[in-house]
Amino acid sequence: MDQFTLNLIFVGGSFLLYIAIAIWARAASTSEFYAAGRSVNPVMNGMAIAADWMSAASFISMAGLIAFVGYGNSAYLMGWTGGYVLLAMLLAPYLRKFGRFTVPEFIGDRYYSRTARLVAVASLLMISITYVIGQMTGAGVAFSRFLEVDTNTGLLIASAVVFVYAVLGGMKGITYTQVAQYIVLIIAYTIPAVFISLQLTGNPIPQLGLFSTHVDSGMPLLARLDQILVDLGFNDYTGLHDSTLNMTLFTLSLMVGTAGLPHVIVRFFTVPKVSDARRSAGWALVFIALLYTVAPAVGAMARLNILTTIYPEGTRAESLTYDARPDWMHNWEQTGLLKFEDKNGDGMIQSYNESSAEFATVAAERGWQGNEMVTFNQDILVLANPEIAQLPGWVIALIAAGGLAAALSTAAGLLLAISSAVSHDLIKRTFKPDITEKGELLAARVSMAAAIVVATWLGMNPPGFAAQTVAFAFGLAASSLFPAIMMGIFSTRMNSTGAIVGMLAGLISTSVYLFTYKGWFFIPGTNMLPDTPDNWLFGISPLAFGALGAVINFIAAYITMKMTAPVPEHIQHLVEDIRLPRGASAATGHH
User: Fold this and answer.
1) CA–CA distances in Å: residue 228 to residues 186, 233, 235
2) What is the pLDDT of residues 454-489, one digit of tens each?
3) pLDDT tens per residue, range 59-108
4) 3-state SS record for 306-367
């Protein structure tokens, strides 16, 4: 059976499964649409959280970012994982006790303010729309290669599938679909990693294979990778080549941004009891770890395979004949995401660090005119990995289904967060309190459909790599919602004016910093200042600024609180009750 047919069977079969689940779990009430009727089993909710959490950025991009930078990009692993623990253990149980449907609803009620709710809605929309671009970008990358269609056509197909199961099912349909998507994506990620670890090290466990001996060279795998990269004039893989300040701030930004992500937080509202929220968090951490502990091995092994594909003997004197390039290179060139240019007309592919002073002499001696791998989109690495390692066709088809599952599961969660903010927080809680439940459900579905249209358009005009775009969303979440949620739970003194000023200060400062160096909506070429370390404020990368935005939020909120009216007494009691093991239901009127 040819590869295209296999891809179609695996991807098409998974899509049919998602749609069937959505029809079976169709939401019939606003409670089912927003919170799955608060009836989801903690283990299943843990799987759904993991699928919601492990987006296209985790599945498709993260290993690519680690592969091409090495140790420096381990910040993604540390930040995202640490942030999830922060959210699960520190915030989620208390938010579940409060008994609301959405994050803006919690902020609006906790800070007894319609304005606070509207600022939270604006923050949520900015975060979720930025985040969803990365998912649509990832879906487009997967479709363009495996279904042999152009990226825009692939996006339209993905949007149609999401439309069916998200608009029909709401949170109820999305939850059970995400359980299926988690199973698909974790199998798809792990099986190729096991095969490749066996090939390179003889160890079937990728996490151990990363620190094992490379079979062909007899050297430790990471030492062999370092050796080849240094021989080509690149930085070694295991060294830190960024500033410690930026790595620390970026990790912190990802951590607190994670704890402020609305589409992840609302997953904890779907379980029957507060204790189930804690159990869901524990199971989700297990399910997330199954992928996150494999990602560093996937990145390192894929980078080694790419280098030995171009330089078969692993020496810088070797070059690959362009006409004899492997099938995986030819296949990915068709997508435009991989491209070579024979700059010196010798029919060979030279790939080296052309900015290296040492290598400039070598290149001049050999008549090389520059690095001839002129395009390598990092988002293709995980998807191309089985082809690079020459694994069976069914494994390649499986990775296609897994990549699409990762992108679509998170996209659905984000779209639900956007839809809920519009229909519940804006229409129901702000502009039309007397709307019927049937009317609110219709408004939720219409706003979901509108959000899908906007997300599709943005996916057709992506600003960068999926993981990089997602990192911007984390910075926005870190600087706006996280401090307001944190203070809302743990401070009885934080008032509405302080929370509003803090959210605005954090959101505006971070947005301005991102737009200054990354451009409007992070589109290169529209930035006001060059995006280089020499131009950054105190050398702080735009990707790392979210942590400072959070500090600005906290400081602005505290100063404003000291200068304005104190919190009403009944709100102080409410905050105290949220943190108590008993009595929260009596205080909030929710069960």
Assistant:
1) 31, 9, 10
2) 878 877 766 554 445 676 788 889 999 999 999 999
3) 777 888 888 888 878 888 888 888 888 888 788 888 888 877 788 889 99
4) HHHHHCCCCCCCCCEEHHHCCHHHHHHHCCCCEEECCCCCCCEECCCCCCCHHHHHHHHHHC
User: How far, in Å, are 109, 257, 476, 486, 561 from residue 553 at the CA level?
Assistant: 20, 13, 11, 11, 12
Three-state DSSP state, 515: helix
CB 314 within 8 A of CB 308: yes
List the beta bridge partners of residue 376: 338
SS3 14: helix
Closest alpha carbon to 185 in 383, 416, 470 = 383
Q: Average pLDDT in the 435-443 region? A: 85
Tokens of 154: 């692939």
The predicted model scores a pTM of 0.80
Residue 313: which residues within 8 A CB-CB, separation 6 or more? none
- What the block records as the tokens of 285 is 């951490």
- Strand-pairing partners, residue 375, are 339
Give the C-alpha separation, 479 to 502, whole Å: 9
Structural tokens at position 540: 């702080």
What are the domain boundaries of the chain?
3-301+388-464
For residue 197, which amino acid is it? Answer: S
Residue (of 382, 411, 361, 344) closest to 130 by Cα position: 411
Quick one: which of 423, 412, 422 has its CA closest to 452? 412
H or E stretch including 497? Answer: helix 496-518
Phi and psi torsions of 316, nearest 5°? -75, -10
Q: Confirm if 88 and 285 have CB atoms less than 8 A apart.
A: yes
For 315, the token pair is: 């020496």
CATH 2.60.40 fits 3-301+388-464, yes or no: no
C-beta atoms surrounding 48 within 10 Å: 30
